[in-house]
Amino acid sequence: MSKVEHNPVIRLDEHDNVAVARIDIAAGSVIGSESITALEDIPMGHKIATRPIGKGEPALKYNTIIGFAGADIKPGNWLHSHNVLMDDFQKDFRFGEDYVAADLFPLEERATFMGYRREDGSAGTRNYIGIFITVNCAATVARKISAWFAEERLANYPNVDGVVAFVHQQGCGMEATGEAMDLLHRTLSGYIRHPNIAGALVISLGCERNNLQRFFSDTGLATGKMLKTIRMQDQGGTAASVEEGKRLIREMLEDANRVERTPCPASHLKIGLQCGGSDGFSALSANPALGKAVDMLVRHGGTAILSETPELYGIEHTLTARARDEATGRKFLERIDWWQSYTEGKDVQMQGIVGPGNRDGGLANVIEKSLGGSKKGGSTGIEAVYRYAEPVTAGGLVIMDTPGYDPVAATGQIAGGANLVCFTTGRGSCFGSYPAPTVKLATNTPMYERMTGDMDINCGQIIDGTKTLDEMGREIFEMLLAVASGEKSKSEALGVGEDEFAPWPIGVTG
Predict the structure, then answer these.
(1) Per-residue model confidence as pLDDT tens for the chain (510 residues)
(2) Are residues 326 and 434 in the same domain?
(3) Same-domain pairing of 298 and 237
(4) Residues contacting 197, CB < 8 A, separation 6+
(5) Domain C-terminal end among 56, 85, 114
(6) I want to staple 166 with a disulfide (CB 3.0 to 4.6 A). Which of 38, 178, 258, 501 is the partner?
(7) CA 164 to chain centre
(8) Is the residue at 433 inside a domain?
(9) Within this chain, do residues 251 and 269 fall inside the same structural domain, yes or no?
(10) CA distance 355 to 365
């Protein structure tokens, strides 16, 4: 038998009956730390049984149930979706029993960043002019206007980060009232009011169900020096609307450019937490390291937004225990119940089967994926639960109900006020976002080295044993402050993010 010289597995909790392969492990390899021999090839990031697990008994990772053995499993067996099965089990929600209030630093010790102070008291990390549409019929006009304000035309406005079109597929052929329209209204108005948006132009066709006048009335928006509107049918069509849009934005550029970066307390930072293309290392490196950074941010008075509700399913009892009170925990469970009803009978991951990339990366089911995803939230208490795109007003760690699909989830977080997004990935997501830049964290070194053009930080150093979680968390926190102060993230430098604006398309299309 061959012998692995360096510990090839990572044990996460003394009570676990599985360990995670740090590297590819060949059948017959002796794993001295666990006193077992690999009975099968175990791919990097996948799980190996460290104790006998009888059929029907739970598989434990982080001392949390991630499924039940579909057959008798011997020490050294590979555990994956073929033999770790989902099943219902009794959960103890323990509302608020593990709640930990934020241990805030004294004001004089809190971190700062160089941001843009706004009249409403908020602070932005970027300074954009946004072009928004009430209906997809106005998308081409918005695109043409934003394209005209290319980099050379903004050379005289060094404090303006750009003119960005936020286009979508909705606004007509949908219910005129109800949840779908409410979601669209909250999303659009949240972006228009966003601290990273210095000025906004809203373009409508004129006859759509998302009526411009009602949209403004329902959301309390009002036109002014930095918020302009165009009705294409009144303006005279496409070409005339493009020219009028150019004129209106030129008027706003001077005022937008007068705003300069000044020191702002880190309490103004709201970070959207995202993960995509997760793998078996997500729960071991990037996600818990981001959790360490979140704990730091919360101590400095900032806010972190944990989302992707279908990817918190299965471990919801661990989050209700961290809620500030029973009402907050039950509000979260109401959203879980809604998702169970919404996805019943559908071929989606909430029914157990994760995506091909997740499976290839070592995740057996959605519970294991959820366990890793929740690690992004660190260890402090959950202060509030929000519906999609609702304004986030509480400080500390909060939950926002969103789908798991990254563009839709991040769009809701940004609409709620996130002025940065932090995105972990094991398979290699190329996601970016406007107007809040995305910082991407790689879970493993091989992927980071393949995709250095897209990854900002290599959290695989934790797996390699060259950095601790605390060290990685500090590095992430410092990068967030740097990006908030104007340093460009990799996706931002590549210009990724304009097409990732994706309001949740819930409801009937007809």
Answers:
(1) 344 347 999 999 999 999 999 999 999 999 999 999 999 999 999 999 999 999 999 999 999 999 999 999 999 999 999 999 988 788 999 999 999 999 999 999 999 999 999 999 999 999 999 999 999 999 999 999 999 999 999 999 999 999 999 999 999 999 999 999 999 999 999 999 999 999 999 999 999 999 999 999 999 999 999 999 999 999 999 999 999 999 999 999 999 999 999 999 999 999 999 999 999 999 999 999 999 999 999 999 999 999 999 999 999 999 999 999 999 999 999 999 999 999 999 988 887 788 899 999 999 999 999 999 999 999 999 999 999 999 999 999 999 999 999 999 999 999 999 999 999 999 999 999 999 999 999 999 999 999 999 999 999 999 999 999 999 999 999 999 999 999 999 999 999 999 999 999 998 888
(2) yes
(3) no
(4) 124, 128, 129, 130, 191, 435
(5) 85
(6) 501
(7) 21
(8) yes
(9) no
(10) 9
Are 59 and 141 members of one domain? Answer: no
Strands 420-425 and 396-400: unpaired
**Total number of domains constituting the chain:** 3
**What CATH code is carried by the domain that includes residue 144?**
3.40.50
Cα–Cα nearest to 119, from 250, 280, 259, 277: 259
Domain-embedded: residue 201: yes
Q: Classify residue 102: in a domain, yes or no.
A: no
Residue 27 and residue 173 share a domain:
no
- Which domain, by its residues, includes 162? 128-258
Alpha-carbon distance of 322 to 351, in angstroms, equals: 25
Chosen domain end from 258, 292, 324: 258
Angle between helices 179-192 and 212-219 (to 10 degrees): 80
User: Of the candidates 329, 490, 446, 278, which has an alpha carbon nearest to the alpha carbon of residue 337?
Assistant: 329
